[in-house]
Amino acid sequence: MVNNLNIHSFNKGNNEESVSIGGKVKMKEKFRRKPVILEAEQFNGKDLIPPMFITVDASGIKVFWIKTLEGALRVRKGDWIVTGIKGECYPVKDDIFWTIYEKAGDCDYEKNTGKVR
Q1: Angle 31-107-95 (CA atoms, 0-180°, nearest 5)?
Q2: Domain extents for the chain?
Q3: Angle at Cα 96 formed by Cα 101 and Cα 59, nearest 5°?
Q4: On the CB side of 41, how many CA atoms lie within 13 Å of its CA?
Q5: Rounded to whole angstroms, how far apart are CA atoms 51 and 88?
Q6: Do 22 and 3 contact (CB within 8 A), yes or no?
Q7: How far apart are the two ends of the chain, measured CA to CA in Å?
Q8: Cα 94 from Cα 75, distance rounded (Å)
């Protein structure tokens, strides 16, 4: 049981958020993604990318899904299907994809490790 749980709201002035548990304040830490090379393919709205599957809704429209570690997630045209470092797949919206990822090009990385050869 936690006593005296106080959660302070986001402070836009200094971009810090704190949590006070029992009078002790803990600040959130900042993290950056490690440079890991992933594979991704953009869904064109018709060609299945494994492990995708299709269902048909009540009005007869095809609905595309992908099996993920969290269960089935809907995939729409333009979404990217990313294969993670352990072979897991997940969809990412196009605008979010380009915010997080950039093309690796012909860099000299071992596949899926981020280590230079």
Answers
A1: 55
A2: 1-31, 39-100
A3: 130
A4: 12
A5: 10
A6: yes
A7: 50
A8: 11
Residue 35 pLDDT? 85
Q: Is 113 left (phi over 0), alpha (psi -120 to 50) or beta?
A: alpha
Reported as type and span, the H/E element at residue 21 is strand 18-21
Which residue type is seen at 109? Y
pLDDT for the residue numbered 112: 47
Amino acid at 19: V
pLDDT of 107 reads: 59
One digit per residue, the tens of pLDDT, for the chain of length 117 reads 444 445 444 444 555 566 666 667 778 899 888 888 999 999 999 999 989 999 999 999 999 999 999 999 999 999 999 999 999 999 999 999 999 999 987 655 555 444 433
Q: Cβ contacts of residue 7 below 8 Å, gap of 6+?
A: 19, 20
Token representation of residue 17: 């958020």
